[in-house]
Amino acid sequence: MIARRHQVALALTAVLAAAAACQAHDHAASGEPGRPAPSGAGRGFTLVASGDVLPHTSIIERARFDAGGTGYDFRPMLAGIEPVVSHADLALCHMETVYGANGDYTGYPVFKSPPEIAAGLAATGYDGCSTASNHTLDDGADGIRRTLDALDGAGVRHAGSARTQAEGDSVTIMRAGPAVVAHLAYTYGTNGYPLPPGQPWAVNLIDEGRIVADARAARRAGADVVVVSVHWGTEWQDAPDQQQLDLARRLTASRTGDRPDIDLILGTHAHVPQAYEKVNGTWVVYGMGDQIAGAMFNHQGAQDPRGNQSTVARFTFAPPRRPGGRWEVAKAEFVPQLFDIDAGRVMNLNRALARGAEVRGVRDRIRDVVLSRGAAKDGLVMGK
Pick from 36, 207, 307, 353: most CB atoms within 10 A? Predict the structure, then answer.
């Protein structure tokens, strides 16, 4: 671990220097529409994050239909959540699957998605995605390479898988208004697929010691905020399982001096929305659910509408009150979502309600699950 920590620190130093010199992918500093430029050192920033993008065969077919039968267009699918995503200073997704090529695209159980989805994510306003999941090795090293190449081509950053050892030893650094944010990502496993020969760095596996070491290296190299994405938990279980609870408690308890090593934990994998909770003073989203997925069938073989429900997490960070202090979450929100499998569209449920759609029961169920561990008392509210 000592050698790897040194490698990470060196890689981070170089990445941070590049980030300071070039803001090509920094929407918040670019003055793009909907993304105001930083107004000064006292300004905070808003981060949004969403759940699993899981293109089943029906999703691939919908994207082809939306492209008029030529190519694949995922932008209409995501248009309903674009206002929420594009107005954040930093927006993160979870790209659960890897990409195929030349029309060789498959859904469950071994996924190879059209690479055009990267352009759809970029057009929606996503700045980066976690790419560590149980499907990261569905097409071996080639699948990882195609996926990261496509995300790079679309200007979407990524964390959790790698094409080279140097990439695996680095940490993804992004700007969010005036802040430097490190994004780390890990998965519980890869569905039994072994790591490619000679490539132990191809996908990050959950290891508490490594996560803490990476977070500390990111902080030492200048990251103001450290965000950790974890692909974990028990599928189809509304409540976080014991592994989630234990790991969240240990990770949020890790500190260097009087400052936590990790500022935010974002969970994926369970297919259903799970609770938000403040643990040791740090927000944990146990599971955001599936943002995009086809009809989902649970372990009993029944179609389960929860598999198309999710949340967008939105956290507004305020700058430290003193030099070297922590960036604190000043406002914590969740936005309830539904993927309408008939229309092939992501719906912001609060906006859909305002238009008269009959989705109140779904919205309220998501709200009850999200607040089930007492997050309301720590200030979590439902956003629009």
Answer: 307
Mapped onto helix, strand or coil, the DSSP state of residue 243 is helix
Report angle CA 201, 262, 272 to the nearest 5 degrees. 80
φ and ψ of 216, to 5 deg = -65, -40
Are 312 and 339 in contact, with CB atoms under 8 Å apart? Answer: no
Alpha-carbon gap, residue 252 to 264, rounded angstroms: 8
51, 78 contact by CB (below 8 A): no
Cα(67)–Cα(120) distance, rounded to whole angstroms? Answer: 12
The count of other CB atoms within 10 Å of the CB of residue 280 is 15
Lookup: tokens for 313? 């997490």
In tens, the pLDDT along 82-93 reads: 999 999 999 999
Question: What DSSP string describes 81-149?
Answer: GHHHHHTSSEEEEEE-S-B--TT--B-TTS-BB-TTHHHHHHHHT--EEE--STTTTTTHHHHHHHHHH
Residue 173: which of 12, 327, 4 has the closest Cα? Answer: 12
Strand partners, 180: 175
Amino acid at 125: G
Q: Integer distance in angstroms from the first to the last C-alpha of the chain?
A: 43
> Which phi and psi angles does 34 have, rounded to 5°?
80, -5
User: H helices within the chain, ranges in order?
Assistant: 2-21, 27-30, 57-66, 75-78, 82-86, 117-124, 140-154, 165-168, 208-220, 242-253, 349-354, 360-370
For domain 2-382, which architecture applies?
A: 4-Layer Sandwich (3.60)
Question: What's the Cα-to-Cα distance from 381 to each of 46, 82, 84, 175, 334, rounded to whole Å?
Answer: 15, 20, 15, 26, 7
**pLDDT per residue over 190-242, tens digit each?**
999 999 999 999 999 999 999 999 999 999 989 999 999 999 999 999 999 99
Residue type, 319: P
As beta bridge partners, residue 179 has 176
**Is a pLDDT exceeding 60 seen at residue 67?**
yes
